[in-house]
Design brief:
By secondary structure, this protein is mainly α. It has a single domain (12-95), classed as Orthogonal Bundle (Recoverin, domain 1). The protein is 61% helix and 6% strand. It has six helices and two strands, in the order ββαααααα. It has helices spanning 13-20, 22-36, 46-51, 53-56, 63-73, 83-100, and strands at 2-4, 7-9. It has a two-stranded antiparallel sheet with strand order 1-2. β1 (2-4) and β2 (7-9) form a beta hairpin.
Length: 102
């Protein structure tokens, strides 16, 4: 279990990949992206992330923390996450939590 800024989370990605296989796991990540995205823009925006914080169990996060979440994954600097950026971010966070637990 990893801890970041008093938010506790357990990384289930390794066991999910093992039980589902890589292709199904990526499909589930893409489904997660679709749940969080602004459907008109096809991106996870600040507004869509804020609107869906309850899905992530982080409804108590403030605006600054949500902006930081977006900024961490925003590889092209447009202020939002496309599907590829989201998947890369999720996998990077998973690898980071595995490295921090050792």
């Amino acid at each position: 279990m990893a801890q970041e800024n008093d938010i506790m989370f357990e990384d289930y990605f390794p066991s999910m990949v093992e039980s589902m296989g890589a292709d199904r796991f990526i499909a589930e990540l893409c489904y997660g992206f679709c749940l969080l995205m602004d459907h008109a823009k096809g991106l996870i925006t600040f507004e869509s992330l804020k609107r869906n914080t309850w899905l992530l169990g982080v409804q108590d996060l403030g605006d600054e923390e949500l902006f930081c979440m977006l900024k961490e994954g925003d590889l092209d600097g447009d202020g939002a996450l496309n599907q590829k950026e989201f998947c890369v971010l999720m996998c990077t966070l998973s690898l980071g939590s595995m490295n921090n637990s050792r």
